[in-house]
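Write out the bound-state structure for adenosine monophosphate.
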Amino acid sequence: MESKSPESYARDPNKPWSMVDFEIGRPLGKGKFGRVYLAREVKSKFIVALKVIFKEQIEKYKIQHQLRREMEIQTSLRHPNILRLYGWFDDDERIVLILEYAYGGELYGVLRKNGYLTEQAAATYISSLSQALAYCHGKCVIHRDIKPENLLLDHEGRLKIADFGWSVQSSNKRKTMCGTLDYLAPEMVENKDHDYAVDNWTLGILCYEFLYGNPPFEAENQKDTFKRIVKIDLSFPPTPNVSEEAKNLISQLLVKDPSKRLSIQKILEHPWIVKNADPKGICPQSQDK
Ligand code: AMP
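---
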């Protein structure tokens, strides 16, 4: 029993987790619905992140269904670039998610600190994301809310997709307006049916943002961002100096017709990815926080 990790406990359906199983450490951050703490499982000494969400908040924002869906999807996924949800427990007031600890924090922090990323770092993250999304799509999961704030980094600078709050498990076309403005695909802006190709669009947006520091269709207000997305009003500023191969990949992802966007497999084979991405998905520069 002593050497059991939360992961192995989590597979034991009879294990009722509670706060007494953990030593709580420093706060790691605060989200919209709760706080996240560094913690150590008492018996195994296994380090985790505990996300504490107050039931009052869940009821106030009516996110019961969203949270349950997030928990069910995230526990079922096993991929090196997807943050593990080992298990959860609750008491009268709180729900606590037992998450894999991402030492490097948010990728957003690295992007804001450095302004923009090197082509090696950007290609490594796009490759990691593509591999994780290929895995998700294979399990009929569309993420729909991939943005730098939902991407965490581990101790080696390996990217981890977190936060499955907006994801759906479906093999049918969906028609629900959701996601964050700048990352929305045109078919979502126009409230049309959408499928896995929305995640491929987002990869194009992220690739641009990694290399230039801002998403491509940023505007003064929501209406103008919508207009720019629908028109595919895409331009590449002269600075920073970005390679033609990177621009080629972005242009093949930010395509209005979802069926004409580069497939995930083709992204992984793209010359810019092959030339720049670290094959192990490790990006040490991101540790420089
Ligand atoms: P969230 O409620 O998921 O938005 O998380 C709030 C903040 O806590 C984020 O901004 C992260 O910086 C931090 N955080 C969340 N989950 C983890 C984790 N698993 N490991 C490390 N930091 C985390």
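---
The first helix runs from residue 6 to 10.
DSSP finds eleven helices and ten strands in the chain.
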